Amino acid sequence: MGGDGFLTDQITREMLAEKRGVFGYRPKAAFPRIINQKGLFTVHCDAANVIDVKESLVGNGYPNLIRLHIPANLKADVVNLLADYGIDRAHLFPDLDGLSAHINTATSRMRKLGEEK
């Protein structure tokens, strides 16, 4: 296991069986999706256990776990705001599926803007 609650590629299934808690795992950047998403996975050893909410490892008084509830009526606004910052399906999923989802969303947005005029 790596330091600070992070697992490395050297961890085995047998070693995981002995662990308790939640650990971070950053996979090798072998695929475009992993690179673009800056992927970090969590490994929950004994997933039936409740996660202890405590101060984050980064400190500053922030908890290690928060729940962010975005009301359904704000979803389109949040997606559009993220797209304005360059965070969209084409960048998160750099393959044909992501590109086609991005083009479909952009086309839909253009149609809605045209209908409003």
Question: How do the helices and strands line up, and which of them pair or pack?
Answer:
Blueprint: E1 6-7, H1 13-17, E2 21-25, H2 32-37, E3 41-45, H3 75-84, H4 89-92, H5 96-116
Parallel strand pairs: 1-2
Antiparallel strand pairs: 2-3
Describe this protein's structure:
By secondary structure, the protein is an alpha+beta fold. The protein folds into two domains: 1-66, no CATH class; 72-116, no CATH class. Helix content is 39%, strand content 10%. The protein has a three-stranded mixed sheet, with no helix packed on it. 1% of the residues are buried.
Q: How many individual helices?
A: 5
**Element-by-element helix/strand order:** EHEHEHHH
**What percent strand?**
5-15%
Strand order of the largest sheet: 1-2-3
Class from helix and strand fractions: alpha+beta
Q: What quaternary form is this?
A: single chain
Q: Which spans of ≥5 residues are poorly predicted at pLDDT below 50?
A: none
- Count of DSSP strands: 3
Rg over C-alpha atoms, rounded to the nearest angstrom:
19 Å
- Helix proportion range: 25-40%
Mean pLDDT: 80
Question: Total domains, how many?
Answer: 2
Distance between the termini: 58 Å
Structure in a nutshell:
The chain has 117 residues and is an alpha+beta fold. It has two domains: 66 residues, no CATH class; 45 residues, no CATH class. The protein is built from five helices and three strands.
